[in-house]
Every structure is written in C-alpha cells, then in structure tokens.
Amino acid sequence: xxxxxxxxxxxxxxxxxxxxxxxxxxxxxxxxxxxxxxxxxxxxxxxxxxxxxxxxxxxxxxxxxxxxxxxxxxxxxxxxxxxxxxxxxxxxxxxxxxxxxxxxxxxxxxxxxxxxxxxxxxxxxxxxxxxxxxxxxxxxxxxxxxxxxxxxxxxxxxxxxxxxxxxxxxxxxxxxxxxxxxxxxxxxxxxxxxxxxxxxx
Length: 201
What we know:
Elements: E1 6-13, E2 19-26, E3 52-59, E4 83-90, E5 102-105, E6 109-117, E7 120-125, H1 131-134, E8 154-157, E9 160-163
Parallel strand pairs: 3-7
Antiparallel strand pairs: 1-2, 3-4, 5-6, 6-7, 8-9
C-alpha cells in the first residue's frame, strides 16, 4: 500500500478459492493514477498484534421520495433496506481507538467508532457530501429516475416571449417559474448592448 505500481506475477489460493498470497514486481516508474486495480494488505497478525475484526456500517434514506405529498401512502415509499454492513479486518492499531474517535479507512472514507459488539468493532460511515455518497443505495427501481424531455418551444412576438407548458419529468422539487407562466421581455427597456433573445426561434 502506498508503494506505487506493481505487476502481479502469480497468486496463491486456498481450498475455498480465497487469495492468500501475491508475488509481484515493483514498477515504481508506472503512473499509479492510471492503475485500475488497487490492493490493500495487512501485516501478518501475531499474538501481540492481532488483526481487529471490524464492521463498517452505512445507512440509507428512510424514504425513497424527496418530499411526500398529502395523498402519498408512507408505506409505498419506505426504503426496503436502510442499513448496510461490510465485515473485514483492520490493523491492530484499530484496537486502540475509543468510542467517538474518527478514523479514515483508505478508499472507504471516514468513520466514527461506535463501540464493540460480540468482539467486532463497529464503525459508522460519516457522509462526505459527494454525489456517490448521498445517492440512495435502494437501487434504481425504488427511486424515480429523471427522464429527459425535449426543449420547450418558444416564440417571440412584440417583445413578449411565450414558453409552452411542457416541463421535463423529474423527481426534484416543483418550483414556480421566476417570471410566471409568461415571461415578459421588454426589448427596449435597457441601455446595455443589444443581445439576441435566447427565446427567438
């Protein structure tokens, strides 16, 4: 980890097909940013430094719709699974963290330690605000997918712009138009440079 690029020459597996060893040649001249497959390994555990069993917990939204309407039935929008756990092993240093400590698991994100349960240390994921992190994990079927619609037709006549009522289908909040149903554009009301209207057909 963090050494750079390496070329895998061979790999050993156990009877269950799990990879137990890798033989690699370091290729430090390679560009790690272009390397697609990355691995993380831990030191061989010893009595003094055993590997820590961890559970990385992530949560999803409680409902699959951004805003429930009055006629919506709550049970139709409940997210089927809201908790996701990923089991694994971590470095022995993880055994030293205290409840409330925040640590980063490489290529996983930041987690807060919540405590030990049945010998497994549980860490809750801290949202990072990135698009992938805030997207629902319920799957495409549970969330309305925006559908692209043709651009609205427009016509310009005597300084007025009339835009048709067609709206793109979207799962976002409904927002009223800034200029109302019919945008009024007064061509002669400005002393600025003359610019062609974007609504002109």
